[in-house]
Specification:
mainly alpha
């Protein structure tokens, strides 16, 4: 009977050692995949930033022109500008409170 317990104990130790090796191999594989995914996502984000930069640089003259027009209108009608600004703040506050509830 004692011989049987020793065999079981040795068999369990062998199984534990085998599982430890498998776990170590899986960890290495996951680390390699993680590094590859990180590189891929970094490359993709660089491409997105470049695309946005190109789009904004092309759109900047129109954006500046629109900003100057808004600035001129604000000088011509200061009361209306203040009312629009106040209404915008209220709308943004309401929108933020609705999103905070969810």
């Amino acid at each position: 009977m004692r011989h049987r317990h020793e065999d079981l104990g040795e068999d369990l130790r062998d199984q534990i050692a085998s599982l430890s090796h498998e776990i170590a191999a899986m960890k290495k594989q996951m680390m390699r995949r993680g590094r590859g995914s990180f590189r891929d996502s970094r490359h993709m984000s660089e491409e997105i930033v470049e695309t946005v930069r190109d789009y904004l640089s092309a759109a900047m003259p129109d954006i500046r022109r629109g900003a100057y027009q808004i600035q001129d209108r604000a000088r011509e009608h200061p009361g209306t500008t203040a009312a629009v600004a106040a209404a915008s703040v209220i709308v943004l506050g309401l929108a933020a409170s609705l999103f905070m509830r969810r």
